[in-house]
Amino acid sequence: MGRLNIVSILTLLATLVGLATAQAQAPQAPTRPDQIDYAMFPLAEAKDSPQCRLHVTGDTFAFDPAVSNPSMTCPDAFAWTLFVRSVRDNFWEDWTTDRQMWPSDPWPRCRPGTAPDRCCPAIEISNTGAPEHCPAYPGPTPGVPSHQVRAPVTAHQMSMEQALGVLGKSDGRWDNVPAILKSPVIGALQDELIFRNKPMVDYVFDNELYHTEGLIRVFDNFVTALGSAAPRRPAAPNPAKSHDAPPFLTKIDFPIAALMVKANWLAADRAAQVGINPDDQEHPYIVMNFVPRSPPGDATPASPKPYLLLSMHISSKDVPNWTWATFEHVNNQGRCDWTGCNDSFGYPVQAKDTTSAGSAALASNYIGPNKTRNIDGSGVDAFDLAGAYPDGGEISPVLGALFAQGDIGTGNGINRSGRPTRQDAAWRSYRLKGTQVDFVTATGVPTKLGNSVTEAGFVNSASCLTCHSRAAITREGVPAFAIFADRMSDAGLAESVNGAPNPAWFSVNAFFGVGTQREAPQVMAVQTDFVWGFRFACPMDPRPLGPAWCKNLTTKGYSAPVPTRMMP
Questions:
Q1: Residues of the chain with pLDDT under 70
Q2: Where does the signal sequence lie (predicted)?
Q3: Phi, psi of 453 (to 5 degrees)
């Protein structure tokens, strides 16, 4: 995604080359805060309160009673409990992927008293990787689902040849790829899968949100309620309970138990091409066999092959706007670039010196981005991109106890079977990059959270919360917004949005609204509870828009949609 402005990149690289030469000739400046450090200061604040205490006893773990909402007060510790829960539940094998959630030729739910012909009586419990009519949940089904990886939705992508060509190279050597372009190259080679737990699948099925027409129904219900009942709203159905038929839904609102994992994978046979050692014994990778992406126009099914887990996002509905956490393999190049890595629970940072602020020792939660110091001989620093970062220190005793309790990472060596287990030692190779629970800090600074793989090429502007706040549908039940904003970084890469959402994304005051009212809201989009996955819904009836795998796509008789207006 996102076209690269090669002229901008060449200009930037030429500047960096000149700065590096000056740096080599200049004496080292004293170690003191600079503009980069000042910019990082709001992002480096420890997320967990000093009151956070997690107790692990027997088969249970619990926070101190004083912590009434750990997902907000102790987001880092809470993120690691989500990691443990997801791994313990075998998310890679037992949870539903996007392709399993949204069938290619969906049927409606069966209603009471109707014959189960061309309708879905229940969620299909199976390992099929691409259901045709009804959502599937692997769950207790023996064996491994037939998952096929797909191209990432968000990462910037650039071929190795393009990246090398920027500096006139063509030797295929990873070392000759400009540092600022290494992330987009990995972004082009990696694949992703998103896994959702049973409460999420149940909610989508119960409310019939697995097809386009179900999403259109929610949009229409919202507009109807706004035009007839405002300021009051219709009573919301309990999202954790099932209903005989889809209830009247004006807002998509997943149950508190909803949990999703976005995992990014790299084919093991491509690892060496981008400077990754798939056989690292000290920090092994989780390895799983997947069906590769099919080349365009090639319908021949490929055989599964090994993929390495590079990173993963975990999102939990424990708060209304979800709790967001991202994890990366400790060896990821540029893991803490741009915004640093912040973990106040799992792996305390080992201090390199005895620097203190006044009489207080420095906190052990933050690893700052790598820098090239004194690049122009006057104390100015610059980012040093795509390099290695410290391990992060020894695992904390409490996290170690959590892992032991869940029987996670207790094995040895590398599991090469292509089927991960919770005991794989490789689970200890992943580090919390950071968490996010607010759009902005208490002083109004936009919070940021991005992953060097998942958000390849735009970590410097990434915000999980703001990006996912734009997950919304139009009156036609299709995505309302693009992932990227219409602004570019200095490298010519499209940026994402961060900070507080813009209300005008969703509705505006319009001339001639409801009935004879001259001004009333015009609904532009209805939010889908921060879940982008609804973009993969297929229509039951012939419609012009939807993913490529949909069976009922047509362009016959299609005309551009008219602006949405509230109806009385």
A1: 1-31, 296-299, 351-359, 378-379, 490-491, 511-518, 555-568
A2: 1-22
A3: -105, -55
Question: Who contacts 457 (Cβ-Cβ below 8 Å, separation ≥6)?
Answer: 2, 155, 156, 158, 183, 184, 187, 491, 493
Contact assessment for residue 147 and residue 291, using Cβ atoms and an 8 Å cutoff: yes
Taking only the tens place, the pLDDT of each residue in 212-228 is 999 999 999 999 999 88
Task: Report residue 450 as tokens.
Answer: 């991005």
- Helix (H, G, I), strand (E, B), or coil: what is residue 378? coil
The whole-angstrom distance between residue 151's C-alpha and the CA centroid of its chain comes to 14
User: What is d(CA 250, CA 221) in angstroms, rounded to the nearest whole number?
Assistant: 5
Residue 464: count of CB within 10 angstroms of its CB: 29
Distance CA 407, CA 288 (A): 19
Pairing of strands 60-63, 191-196: unpaired
Alpha carbons 551 and 534: distance in angstroms, whole number:
17
pLDDT value at residue 21:
39
- Which sign, positive or negative, has the C-alpha torsion 203, 253, 440, 437? negative
Alpha-carbon gap, residue 37 to 368, rounded angstroms: 8
Candidates 324, 456, 342; CA nearest to 389 is: 342
Question: In angstroms, rounded to a whole number, what is the distance separating the alpha carbons of residues 208 and 540?
Answer: 12
168: left (phi over 0), alpha (psi -120 to 50) or beta: left
Give DSSP secondary structure letters for 304-362: PEEEEEEEEEEEETTSTT-EEEEEEETT-TTTTTTT-EE-SSSSPPPPSS--EETTEEP
The separation between the first and the last C-alpha atoms of the chain, rounded to the nearest angstrom, is: 41
Q: How far is CA 350 from CA 74, 118, 364, 393, in A?
A: 21, 61, 7, 6
Ranges of beta strands (E only) in 352-489 are 356-357, 360-361, 366-367, 371-372, 382-383, 430-436, 472-473
The whole-number pLDDT of residue 14 equals 39
For residue 24, the model assigns a pLDDT of: 39
Q: How many CB atoms neighbour CB 125 within 10 A? A: 11
Cα 33 to the chain's mean position, in Å? 32
The secondary structure element, H or E, covering residue 60 is strand 60-63
- Site of tokens 């035009």: 227
What's the pLDDT at 197? 98
Q: 106: buried, middle or exposed (CB in 10 Å: 19+, 13-18, 0-12)?
A: buried
- Please identify which residue in the block is written with the tokens 């000093």: 50
Residues β-bridged to residue 96: 196
Beta bridge partners of 55: 62
Q: Determine the Cα–Cα distance for residues 120 and 135; give it in Å rounded to an integer.
A: 9
